[in-house]
Amino acid sequence: MNKKSKYTKILVITGVILVLAIVQTLPVFFMKPWGSKILSNAAIILNYQPGDEDGAHEVFELLKDKSDFIYDKMDYVREEPVKVYLYKTQFQLAIREAGLITIAFAPPWHIGDSHNGNIMMLSPNTPIEAHTHDSILTATLHELVHSIVYRINDDLSYFWDNGLATYLAEQFPEPEYYDIDKIPSIQDMHTENGLKFGEMGGYAYSYFYIQYLDQTYGWDKIVAYAKGEGDYEQIFNQSEEEIYDEWVQYLAEMKN
After folding, report:
1. Closest to 114 measured CA to CA, from 88, 145, 76
2. Average of pLDDT values for 125-151?
3. Which end of the chain offers a freer environment for a tag, N or C, measured as fewer CB atoms within 10 Å?
4. Contact criterion met (CB below 8 Å) for 48 and 55
């Protein structure tokens, strides 16, 4: 093969890779569902697909009823309407996470996310094995908390972020979603890997973590830490390790 042919081959391969990369990531930049319709007021702009009017109205009404409470709890003044994108299938939701490749590893329980402060949700009327209509609907409030955290402190840990979201959405953990004898270590609590977090029962444990802090130190301190106003010592007058030991004891007592 002469130099010209090698050069042509390299250009072709490079071009194919670029095209595949563009195709793979394209869905991320088009968050609106195909042929989307809109429900909106001063606080919410909800994009949904034709045929999902019932699910869209349920999500819209829930956010209309509960969002002010959550904004107030997070001590955040709404600066603009929250944008919500509602999808009728998990496939449509998954590809907007990180492109088409996402469908290869998206867990079956995945029903929503917050992307740059926007809410992406599966319709509550989509039947899936891992969730019920009500658990999907409630998860919308979970994602609303994530969208607020993104605005007030995007550096907050994954564990804290999800603890706040689960707690404020009142997603009380069912016993099958955690094992009190397999409490995550402090190192585990610092993971930013969503799959690992889910597999270790992170949603349940982070709920109990925020619940413990609320009952012991008060909500104002939780919000102060969430907003990045200080570290553990400055906010709680305890080290993270001391808080962790207290929490483990709390879980042990809760078990009994």
Report:
1. 145
2. 93
3. C
4. yes
Domain locations in the chain as residue ranges? 31-152, 154-256
3-class SS string, 31-87: CCCCCCEEEECCCEEEEECCCCHHHHHHHHHHHHHHHHHHHHHCCCCCCCCEEEEEE
Q: How confident is the model at residue 55 (pLDDT cuts 50, 70, 90)?
A: very high
* b/e map 118-132, b = 16+ CB within 10 Å: bbbbbbbbbeeeebe
- Two tokens at 73? 């709890």
Please enumerate, as own/partner, the contacts of 240-243 that have beta carbons within 8 Å and a separation of 24 or more: 240/186, 241/186, 243/213
What CATH number was assigned to the domain covering residues 31-152? Answer: 3.40.30.160
Q: What is the pLDDT of residues 107-127, one digit of tens each?
A: 676 788 888 889 999 999 999
Which is more confident, 191 or 16? 191
